[in-house]
Design a protein that fits this description.
Helix content is about 40%, strand content about 15%. By secondary structure, it is an alpha/beta fold. The relative contact order is 0.20. The longest helix has 21 residues. The chain is built from eight helices and six strands. The two termini are about 35 Å apart. It has one domain: Decaprenyl diphosphate synthase-like (Undecaprenyl pyrophosphate synthetase). It has a six-stranded parallel β-sheet with strand order 3-4-2-1-5-6, sandwiched between helices. Belongs to the UPP synthase family. Catalyzes the condensation of isopentenyl diphosphate (IPP) with allylic pyrophosphates generating different type of terpenoids.
């Protein structure tokens, strides 16, 4: 049975929905393998799950949604699979941006764009500029992204500022460091969801998840739907978030 919306549920320790939900979308390949289909079929169904997730996030009051779409390590996958994924990304950026803009959704990207093809980089930049002022939901896609690389990049930028005499080492704080991360203009995630039954972070938002809640689901990403998302939100709602302090 599909549960009712978050707002109508029984009050719990976290009665409000999380502001920022980040999802490690895992299981496309296993979904296809179970059905004796090529991996690209799983990735296509995974793209359908992304569309559903965006709509459900809006309905459930989530303001920021970050999806781990393609990691820096994913470049090591077979060339044909990488090409299929890039083809799906190109199609998404070509066909979905109009609808996202119409729905007042901001589309943003984090990760190393240098490895992406010029046409995809151009589509990304156009989508970001077009939807920059939208405010209903901030949808961030992590592409060619690695948490360690992001931290190194932030440290390098601060080191360059120190070397140039613009700041001193004493000026470096958690706040200034966060300001150099790819996610500098969005809040840290409140809830991390990983599908497929795996229970690891996979180099995702390593700095930003310091006080996030984690929910690991046995559902493969192509089967992710509103009921599953609501179950994760229910789990989050029952947590007591103390941020290191006593109640």
């Amino acid at each position: 049975m599909v549960k009712e919306g978050f707002a109508s549920r029984k009050k719990s320790k976290n009665s409000e929905p999380p502001v920022h939900v980040a999802i490690i979308m895992d299981g496309n390949g296993r979904w296809a393998k179970k059905r004796m289909l090529p991996k690209v079929a799983g990735h296509k169904r995974g793209a359908d799950a992304v569309r559903r997730c965006v709509e459900d996030a809006i309905d459930l009051g989530i303001r920021y949604l970050t999806l781990y779409a393609f990691s820096s390590e994913n470049w090591n996958r077979p060339e044909d699979e990488v090409n299929d994924l890039m083809g799906l990304l190109h199609r998404y950026l070509t066909k979905e941006v109009d609808e996202l803009d119409d729905k007042n959704i901001r589309l943003a990207f984090i990760g190393d764009r240098s490895k992406l093809s010029p046409d995809i980089r151009a589509l990304i930049e156009a989508a970001e500029q077009r939807t920059l002022n939208n405010s209903r939901l901030c949808l961030t896609l992590a592409l060619s992204y690695g948490g360690r690389a992001e931290i190194v990049d932030a440290a390098r930028k601060l080191a360059e500022q120190v070397q140039a005499g613009k700041i001193s080492p004493e000026d470096i704080s958690e706040e200034t460091f966060s300001g150099k991360l790819h996610t500098h203009d969005i809040p840290d995630p409140d809830l991390i969801i990983r599908t497929s039954g795996e229970q690891r972070i996979s180099n995702f938002l390593l700095w930003q998840i310091a006080y996030a809640e984690f929910v690991f689901l046995d559902v493969l990403w192509p089967d992710f739907n509103r009921e599953v998302l609501e179950q994760a939100l229910d789990e989050y709602g029952g947590r007591d978030r103390r941020f290191g302090a006593r109640p």
